[in-house]
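Structure request: G-protein coupled receptors family 1 profile domain-containing protein, Myodes glareolus.
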Amino acid sequence: MAMPLCGHQLNHFFCELPVLLKLACEDTGGTEANLFVARVIIVICPLVLILGSYAHIARAVLNIKSMAGRRKAFGTCASHLFVVTLFYGSAISTYLQPAHRYSEKEGKFLALFYTIITPMLNPLIYTLRNKDVKEALWKVLGRGTDSK
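Returned structure:
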């Protein structure tokens, strides 16, 4: 993407497309439209495939006879869906908004969120599914365990 910038200072963590489009000195309408199509393909298509696979998983889980088995399967899926929602929610908010509506403060927060915070939370979310880790966390927080 070769586009003249108006000499403004880039006030962001890294070169995000919405930030660069906002700093451009020329009309970005055509570029914005092309980039929007590319972003839809890159962001929405994988999300649709992931949600479609979860629909198939949900149908399979509903066929499980035991309630304990269903609960365990849905618990695993819930943590996965939570991580997917965190990542794709912030990515969609960042990349699928028009450049003229882009907010620097909000953009910085969302960039920080999906590049740093979500990957940091990911292991924590999956680790908290382990019963021993949950008990240790409750002990550290001073609440002890009442489930014994």
